[in-house]
Here is the input.
Amino acid sequence: MQKLQHSVVAQKRALIAGSVGNFIEWYEFAVYGFLATVIARNFFHWQGETELTGLILTYASFAIAFFFRPLGAIIFGRMGDRVGRKPTLICVLIMMTLVTTALGLVPSWSSIGVAAPLMITGLRILQGLCAGGEYGGAVSLMTEFAPRGKRGLFGAWQSFTVALGLLAGAAVVALLSALLSQEAMLQWGWRIPFFLALPLGGVALWIRLHMEETPSFLQQKKSQIPVSLKTKASTGATFTAILTGICRLMGWSAAGYTYLVIMPTYLQSSLHTGFNQALLIAVITNLGFASTIIPAGILSDRVGRRKVMVAASVLLLILALPLLNLLQSESSTLAVKGTVVFVAGAIVGMLAGPGPAMLSEMFPTRVRYTGLGLAYSLSNAIFSGCAGLIITGLIKHTGNLNIPAWYVMITAAVSIFALLTLNKDDHLRSLNK
Here is the structure.
């Protein structure tokens, strides 16, 4: 009885410990995305260039961090698969907190010139490395502690804290924009959200110091199964699994960033929506996202990951263009726009709920941290990190305001075929291998 109670306590600690790092990571990414127009004016608004060019440069800095996430997944993933999930996640958290806080300290272009955007980009690269090491460890921690039949639920909490981080980022930016003048926000107010990462990181660190190592990792170490891949066959299988994972995640990655992070800037720059209204719509989108994550994770434990994720991808393919056209319509009221983005966010949540468990089930314990982290990071590097850059650039060159919808539709179509290759009973088998 005492052992059972200890196990339940350890599971709860794992959920909380895995969640806090994701919350901070996505809070920061949300803040950067929602403050893109302000950051562009402070660091990337070069003389003689248009505001849209400044936005493109800001998103280029945003995107470069994502391209370093796979490197972080490899570095920290190998560490996590060799020495343990706990010490690696603690290391990643400390680095992420310090780097995020440092972003708020960088002087603007007017103070130090070209060094300012270079410093911002350098810190974004370090953030990318940390973020690449966070996801694989957090998902491994949660799913390896999950009791039988609840892996989808436990993994869904990782995505749910992503939603909370995005909401927190939007809420902080919205509050500051309401309390401060536009000039104050531009000069110093934008720094406050980045400084908040320091106390948040302190709390998260205390929680992670008190968590336990996962049962699956301890069992693997006890049985002395080698972490390094000894054979060409196993190396090939892992490589194939990573490529398959990228394809399965394409729609989720593209739609997630298009709707949850890029949309506020799209509304301002392309549809001329006011800053505060765009932020309100962003909050509504993220509420829709948060509302379906946990239910979708639970449902995937009952009917399987494939049914839930294929259904969500089909909805993205069918509804992306009609939903965007409703946003573009001058006759659409704020209530209509709010409903549209809530639905869009809810569909993304249907992918984010079962997604972490689906990825965890694709890799054996000895390479799980590295494998799922790399698949997720590569997908996000290509289809999330570049979303703002691709969408804004194509709109500038083509004038086609439907680009966001087409981007989502193309990636969703590929994901549908990849998700159909999932086994129906993957959600029923053990991860202890």
Observations:
- Residues 1-6 have pLDDT under 50 and may be disordered.
- Residues 232-269 form the longest helix (38 residues).
- The two ends are 26 Å apart (CA to CA).
- Residues 220 and 417 are 33 Å apart (CA to CA).
